[in-house]
Amino acid sequence: KIYVHLKEGSGADGLDALKNKPQLHSMVAKSLCQNASGKNYIVFTGPSITSLNLFEEFEKQGIYCCGLLSTRKSDCTGLPPSMLSNPETPQARGQYRIRMKGNMSLICWYNKGHFRFLTNAYSPIQQGVIIKRKSGEIPCPLAVEAFAAHLSYICKYDDKYSKYFISHKPNKTWQQVFWFAISIAINNAYILYKMSEAYHVTRYSRAQFGERLVKELLGLEDTSPSH
Prior knowledge:
single chain, alpha+beta, 2 domains, about 40% helix, about 20% strand, globular
């Protein structure tokens, strides 16, 4: 789902008032999650969206969250200052501190630097592990492991399909949004195709799939039920 904020001007919801501020990111997140209410979904968020107020609002709607927190980029309103500053004593890799408020957990985990996570989707006492090629296994709360696993999906998507995004230098912003949306739609269509029975009949590569799709849209090739 794609959300484009079009409102302009100096009003409370205008871009001038919300640009580069947590309010705009929260507005986008709420819009994208409108259809997720009451389904017990877990939403993973980056630092610009993660906030206590947003997560508590989502929880009331039956949406649970796990997000990376940044003292520079995140809205840290309502969070304990002691968890937002780094401890003076050195810490070993894998060590972490936890503060809780109801179902909400704020986790400060150390791995060559301090990483903070806010979640109401995972118990802070559940243990997980991060596997590094050189360092081996690093202990962590389950929320950290889950966030790392879901973040890797984005990286895999970028690695596999970033070169198939339509390259176009638009004159207007809407043109850039249009071609971006088309590129995502085609890439997602290919992922769904690989999950379908048709993929076992004819295994098209991403390039072959795109070529066939264009021909079908232009009416240059007949389609068959098996495809």
